[in-house]
Design goal:
heterodimer; A: 406 residues; alpha+beta; 18% strand; B: five-stranded mixed sheet; 9 helices; elongated
């Protein structure tokens, strides 16, 4: 109790030093928390997104991943039969992706003259069309309206707002036919608004029935990839093996495989998180260590007096370490809150990265991240106090008193 | 983009086509030749004269192409995480291989002097259904978005690091000045002017922060070299990932000295207003 009071008095006696130390520890902790969140956030967020609708496997053209290239799987009808007959498969959800242009009835599309986003020079809006099977799909959630049937389409909220289109309106969709090719067009009625799970910012997604989009792009019976849903007791690895054997022209990828590829592509952020996290911890330990070293050297006389009246060494070490822990506990607590706030700001910057699904998060707040950051800081704080205290208490009382003299 | 898939590698010259007809019914182009990107060519141990089996689509029938050489693509940060190798064909060969004769994915147009790219784009686009006409500036803007975002992220991280470093420096300066309590008080008691003592303390702070700044710059240069060496090795590229400029060096040093001076000045002013007798007695 006496030592705790002494420690508290010492911390309170030098408010400027204490305040600076607390701010330093808080900023370092905030950075540490953010880097821990960044290191694991994107992987866990991407895994969660992929598993949202319960489709554990993706079937893509050999050598590609979904949304990775423009390659397509021809002859889907026969592939669908093969996939549906595979033991353990409960659902087959085909997806065809294609670039299209949208023209709104009665008005030129917005963005004319403004080349930002997907606006074209001619006043159309470039969009990303997805052909789906309304009976079995895992790439969107209907927010308002219903899944599209023949001649109908779903838009996302941002695109609908940008085009000033509401359910019930009609839009004209033109396929990108290539140079010198007269594009096919189709008029579709917007029947609702949906959340497109894998759409990137600025994609302007639009969903149509698979057959409608196949006809529009002139690729009957072709799909970009297929999502597979297993039965409750099915083993994804067994389905993967069975499909690979039955359909050698396609690649079957598990969610883990896709996440692993994404991890590789975004390895830069994990490496950055590791480096900056380590530096943050180092800065915090140097700061607290320096303050404690100077604080102990200023109090050699007090330590000598405490030793002289019979206070055991370990109690003195405990008191000094407690002082260091106090700094880290308070500064770290503030730092955790600061880190959560800062992560929102950093997330807002990285969310502008093109090509990533809008739902993917770089900084994911998990209690584990906070516990790890705080735990690391407490360990650092304990060591920062322990080392100078141990060194000071090793000296004889006379030596301590001699060292105290100016 | 015209796509081809490499399905096999054969050392030595081709012994003949596996198939004379591509999936879309077009004949494999005769005398099919290919240039291979150096990185992949070396890892696949390809040499001029070797033969590749190439398909335009997974379901396609393969055609054989003779490797005429390896090429070094210009360093391009946008391809750092792209693991598919680049192959260069004669345009008619690839168009035939892909079953898309007289077809291209994109083309570049040189404008007459004084022509406005935006107006030309607006006029051209309606004439090319399904095509997008972009000026060089538009293309540059779109392709550099990733790097602009990463740059902003680095800026934010740099700002946070700067705050942490500034607080650390201020803390050390305060501690250094406070260490001088007794000698400063003694000097004041024997009549040394406050201005002189202030100058002493602030000079010490400036020297300390400048030395720390130089040491930090040295560490930064070493770290920058290590980062470049590591990532150039990982990505097999000559791209420069970290660059320390003269301007950056000047800014870092100036910042260290200014922060050190500010912290030293603040602590010295606080110290010099205290009662000297009391300080000596402590």
């Amino acid at each position: 109790m006496l030592l705790a009071r002494t420690s508290w008095r010492e911390v309170a006696h030098r408010p400027l030093r204490t305040l600076l130390a607390l701010v330093g520890v808080a900023v370092s902790t905030a950075m540490l928390v953010d880097m821990i969140m960044l290191g694991s956030g994107i992987t866990s967020s991407f895994s969660d997104l992929l598993a949202t609708r319960g489709y554990e496997l993706r079937v893509a053209p050999r050598g590609t991943l979904p949304f990775d290239t423009e390659a397509r799987i021809p002859g889907f009808s026969s592939l669908r039969d093969t996939l549906a007959d595979t033991p353990g498969v409960a659902g087959v959800a085909p997806v065809l992706a294609a670039a299209v242009n949208i023209d709104v009835d009665g008005a030129s599309a917005p963005g004319s003259g403004d080349r930002a986003g997907g606006a074209l020079a001619s006043g159309r809006r470039r969009a990303f069309a997805l052909g789906i099977d309304p009976a079995e799909q895992g790439i969107l959630r209907v927010i308002d309206g219903a899944l599209p049937t023949r001649g109908e389409a779903l838009l996302d909220e941002d695109t609908a707002r940008e085009l000033s289109v509401a359910p019930g309106d009609t839009v004209e969709i033109g396929a990108a036919g290539g140079f010198g090719v007269v594009a096919r067009t189709a008029r579709v009625r917007v029947v609702g608004i949906a959340e497109f799970l894998f759409a990137a910012r600025g994609d302007a997604p639009i969903a149509l029935p698979l057959e409608d989009l196949q006809r529009l792009v002139g690729r009957p019976d072709a799909v970009s990839f297929v999502m597979l849903r297993g039965t409750e007791d099915a083993d994804p690895a067994a389905i993967e093996a069975a499909v690979t054997a039955a359909a050698p022209r396609v690649d079957v990828v598990t969610l883990a495989g896709i996440v692993d590829r994404a991890r590789q592509r975004l390895s830069y952020f994990r490496q950055l998180a590791l480096i900056l996290g380590t530096v943050s911890l180092l800065v915090a330990s140097l700061l607290v260590g320096t303050i404690m070293a100077i604080s102990v050297s200023e109090r050699l006389g007090t330590i000598a007096a405490l030793r002289a009246i019979g206070i055991p060494r370990r109690s003195i070490i405990g008191g000094l370490t407690g002082e260091s822990l106090l700094l880290c506990a308070i500064g770290g607590g503030v730092g955790l809150a600061l880190g959560v706030v800062m992560s929102g700001y950093l997330e807002s910057i990285l969310s502008d990265l093109p090509g990533l699904p809008e739902a993917v998060r770089f900084f994911v707040l998990r209690p584990g991240s906070l516990v790890v950051a705080y735990g690391l800081l407490i360990v650092v704080g304990a060591l920062a106090g322990l080392v100078p205290a141990w060194r000071a208490t090793r000296l004889e009382v006379v030596t301590l008193l001699h060292a105290e003299e100016p | 983009m015209l796509v081809a898939i490499v399905v096999g590698v054969h050392p030595g010259p081709a012994s003949g086509q596996d198939s004379a007809v591509s999936p879309s019914g077009h004949a494999c182009p005769s005398g099919l030749e290919v240039l291979v990107e150096r990185g992949w060519g070396e890892s696949a141990r390809l040499a001029p004269g070797d033969t590749l089996e190439i398909r335009s689509a997974p379901e396609g029938v393969s055609c054989r192409a003779v490797v005429t050489g390896l090429f070094e693509p210009p360093p391009d940060p946008s391809r750092l995480n792209v693991d598919r190798p680049r192959l260069l064909f004669h345009l008619p060969h690839l168009a035939a291989l892909a079953g898309r004769p007289n077809d291209v994915d994109q083309l570049t147009i040189a404008l007459a002097p004084g022509a406005d790219p935006a107006r030309v784009a607006e006029r051209l686009e309606p004439l090319l259904p399904g095509a997008q006409v972009l000026s060089t500036v538009d293309v540059a803007d779109r392709s550099s978005t990733t790097f602009l975002v990463v740059n902003r992220f680095h800026g934010a991280i740099g700002l946070i690091t700067l705050i942490a470093g500034g607080v650390f420096l201020a803390c050390i300066m305060v501690l250094k000045v406070q260490e001088r309590r007794a000698p400063i008080a003694a000097a004041r008691l024997v009549g040394v002017r406050r201005g002189l003592l202030m100058g002493w303390l602030v000079s010490e702070a400036a020297i300390l922060s400048a030395l720390g700044g130089v040491l930090g710059l040295g560490l930064g240069l070493i770290a920058s070299s290590l980062i470049n060496a590591f990532y150039q090795h990982v990505y097999d590229t000559t791209l420069v990932f970290s660059r320390v400029t003269v301007e950056m060096t000047g800014q870092a040093l100036a910042l260290a000295v200014v922060l050190g001076l500010g912290a030293g000045l603040f602590a010295a002013r606080r110290l010099l207003v205290l009662d000297a007798l009391e300080e000596v007695g402590r």
